[in-house]
Design goal:
Layout lengths: L2 H8 L2 H7 L14 H8 L2 H11 L10 H7 L3 H11 L10 H8 L2 H11 L10 H7 L3 H11 L10 H7 L6 H8 L10 H8 L2 H11 L10 H7 L3 H6 L14 H7 L3 H6 L14 H8 L2 H11 L10 H7 L3 H6 L14 H7 L3 H11 L10 H7 L3 H11 L10 H8 L2 H11 L10 H7 L3 H10 L6
């Protein structure tokens, strides 16, 4: 570090002036020159002296003396530096105007505006956006005509930042310039106001932006449903029955949040389905939201997804006992592959749901001929096998394979013991018994069990 820089940092302007011409261009560890430090401190005479030697020099981050002066509001220094350093950008493409705007230095902004307006940082931020985030009303009023409607890399406008940061005093001037401007993803300021529960912005924006959709098809009403904004949803009700591109509705979002008041408000969307065929009732069932299930069941019961899944099957898969009990009228419905709710309950080893569904679905087979008992046997669900064996033991799939054979393949001795009396003599379509499957898979304990119950000794 030079003696001049050292003197400036001590605030010794007289000493710095004496040595200013002795080490021109010298830098500190950050790459900053004496001119930079003089501008940062607002030492105008020093800036004037050093300017011919060190103008347009940038530190390690690309900052200039003009940026340092602007950030600290040193207007006279900025006037000296503007001609040489105006429009220069840092490594992240910030300008002196951006620094002045972010700090609320109104007079400096007035000076720099003609030369540096409408530039963007590497993140797409403008001076107007930075002034908005800082809630600098006078600066915003200077910049809004020049930089209004510009969008950053995140797709946001200054108005959107005003909403995010709840800038009450900036709303009117920014709405006048930027309302109806959408982000790259189609998000609007109204949608952000709903998400933030920012009532003032919502009231000012609703008549200007209601009905607009994001690129994914989502609406402000959907965001109200997602965030539990009942009063806002009531005001946005004209967006009812608009679906997101994947088919999701505001009602579905309300259902997932278990907000029964919103579900009642949005009930006019009942019957709509996603592109995969999922309904609000299915979401309520899989999440176990009982009040929502009760509200929707009369309107959506019996529906299937494109893969054939019903609300009952979803409830069973997720262990939602109360929801399944309400939806038991869907018993017997199968997926596209023939699977039933009872099969799902068996896979989960859910005794309560097995008990609920056995009378209605016992004996049903999927497209491969598999039963709930067979699935339970394949996955080692002992208690499920004990309940299901009463009604499904002795059944065989499309290849003639039985639950006992499946248990033998996996080596589940306890399940084999449970089934051996009913299924020991069964043969598959190739004439093989469970003994064959135990031998093929090296399941010694099951093989010994089968031999013992047959009064034989394994080879």
């Amino acid at each position: 570090m030079s003696v001049t820089i050292d003197a400036i940092l001590r605030g010794d302007v007289a000493e710095a002036l004496k040595t200013a011409s002795s080490t021109p261009g010298a830098r500190d560890l950050h790459g900053r020159t004496a001119l930079y430090h003089a501008a940062e401190q607002g030492f105008m005479e020093l800036v004037s002296t050093l300017l011919p030697f060190e103008a347009r020099q940038q530190d390690n981050a690309g900052h200039t003396a003009l940026m340092a002066a602007a950030r600290n509001g040193h207007l006279d220094c900025c006037k000296l530096l503007l001609a040489k350093e105006g429009k220069m950008v840092s490594r992240d493409k910030q300008t002196a105007l951006m620094y002045a705007a972010g700090k609320g230095h109104t007079e400096v902004v007035k000076l720099l505006l003609p030369k540096e307006a409408k530039l963007r940082s590497s993140e797409g931020m403008t001076a107007l956006m930075l002034a908005t985030v800082g809630k600098h009303k006078d600066v915003v009023s200077l910049l809004v005509d020049k930089e209004g409607r510009m969008i950053n890399e995140d797709g946001r406008t200054a108005l959107m930042y005003a909403v995010i940061h709840r800038c009450d005093e900036l709303l009117d001037m920014l709405i006048k310039r930027e309302a109806r401007t959408s982000a790259k993803n189609g998000i609007t300021a109204l949608m952000l106001a709903v998400e933030a529960n920012y009532t003032l912005a919502f009231e000012k924006l609703i008549n200007l932006e209601i009905g607009r959709k994001a690129t994914d098809g989502s609406t402000a009403l959907m965001r109200a449903a997602q965030n539990g904004r009942l009063e806002m949803a009531q005001r946005l009700i004209r967006e009812l029955r608009i679906q997101r591109r994947d088919g999701m509705t505001a009602l579905m979002f309300a259902t997932r949040k278990d907000n029964i008041q919103l579900v009642r408000l949005l009930i006019g969307e009942a019957g709509l389905a996603t592109r995969d065929g999922q309904t609000a009732l299915m979401y309520a069932a899989m999440d176990g939201h009982i009040d929502c299930v009760q509200q929707l069941i009369a309107l959506e019961v019996g529906r299937r997804t494109s893969d054939g899944y019903s609300a009952l099957i979803y409830a069973t898969m997720n262990g939602q006992h109360d929801a399944a009990a309400l939806l038991v009228q869907e018993a017997g419905m199968k997926t596209s592959f023939g699977k039933t709710a009872l099969m799902m309950a068996a896979l989960n080893d859910d005794a309560s749901l097995i008990g609920l569904l056995m009378k209605r679905e016992s004996g049903l087979q999927d497209e491969d001929g598999m039963t709930a008992l067979m699935y339970a046997a394949s996955y080692g669900r002992l208690s499920a096998c004990a309940r299901l064996a009463k009604t499904e033991a002795g059944m065989q799939n499309n290849d003639g394979v039985s639950a006992l054979m499946l248990a033998a393949i996996e080596g589940y001795r306890d399940i084999a013991l449970l089934l051996v009396e009913r299924e020991r003599e069964l043969c598959d379509h190739e004439g093989n018994t469970a003994v064959f499957y135990a031998e093929e898979n090296g399941c010694t304990e099951v093989l010994q069990l089968l031999a013992a119950t047959a009064g034989e000794h394994p080879q």
